[in-house]
Amino acid sequence: MTVGLAGEPARPPAEPGDLEAVRDRLAREPGELTPHRVARALRESGRPVGDAAVLAVYEALRRDVVGAGPLEPLLRTPGVTDVLVNGADRVYLDRGAGLEPTGVRFPDEEAVRRLAQRLAAVGGRRLDDATPHADLRLPDGTRFHAVLAPVARPGTLISLRVLRPRGFTLEELEAAGTLGPDAAELLRAIVATRLAFLVSGGTGTGKTTLLAALLSLVAPAERIVLVEDAGELRPRHPHVVGLESRPANIEGAGEIGLRTLVRQALRMRPDRLVVGEVRGGEVVDLLAALNTGHEGGCGTLHANSAVDVPARVEALALAAGLARAAAHSQLASAVDVVLHLARDRDGRRRLAQVAVPERGSDGLVTMAVALGLGPDGTITPGPAAGRLASRLGS
Ligand SMILES: Nc1ncnc2c1ncn2[C@@H]1O[C@H](COP(=O)(O)OP(=O)(O)OP(=O)(O)O)[C@@H](O)[C@H]1O
Ligand SMILES: [Mg+2]
Fold it and tell me: Whose alpha carbon is nearest atom 8 of ligand 1?
């Protein structure tokens, strides 16, 4: 596989210091890689901004970032959200209609491995037999995940999530058919009333996207504190700060996990505490925070249906040492509403359910449906419709 741009006229190479400075800045504020942004980043880091320097850095980064060899045309195809490599012979993409096989092939497993390692290095991580997995964000914002073979089968697995140049607004989600006007109105009310909510759904159903759209509706005077594994949420809001977890270094030291970060975030006077993706023990800290006066918190959670949310929270909390009864009681009082997303057979992502946690006489939480939303936009009120309305003060 060739990843260099063979045949291009030679240009003076970028100064390593320039490259580092720009990479740093762009990584802090992911977005599309353009010469304009490179020039700005150079300027902001007090480095020379001549045309030659800008171009040299731009091209070096472009090669780094989009030097994805045979994957590059796929990543550039309009509408593509995911590119998945299952070893040398199978590459799939998703452009909104479910997974589609592509004709792209790598010469051999070694080539896939090399590409995975190179992209990981671009994101500042090692990927080798000692640490055969990596999850990170490339400087252009693309989310990169890989697991090397033989841990991964049938070969090295690479999952790339393409970042939209900017997130969806709630109106755009409406236009895309993700939800209708009435549901959008309800979500606006949920944000305005500062209810605590979880966005649930299966993988790639648009949870992060919906959460970002909702955070963009938060009143400008509020301070949003994001806690994430890989900085992904970029709400359009004037006051957003974020904390990102960090894996251990090669000596096994220096790990900063989400639990620590949630606790740190609480000391930062958040008006909205946001855990981008709740997938471990941080659920305990988030629930505790929401139960101790931190209203309006939110996050996303993998779950196949809204009904599964309590079991999922319970499992994560148990693994972190919180007893079952405590997990349920915390969930019931912490979370006001769950917004569940689903993906239809035709690939369309949509809001499918709005549900409210309800505590039974056994103390366990079940999800009561407030609204069911059909593929054709029909809204069916469920048993908890009244409870949701009263939480919204209407
Ligand atoms: N409603 C939507 N309509 C069209 N495309 C969407 C919609 N929501 C999300 N997408 C696109 O689908 C991809 C997956 O979205 P997102 O990252 O929000 O999903 P997720 O459920 O958070 O995924 P994961 O399970 O990996 O966390 C993104 O590229 C996003 O731009
Ligand atoms: Mg997500």
Answer: 206
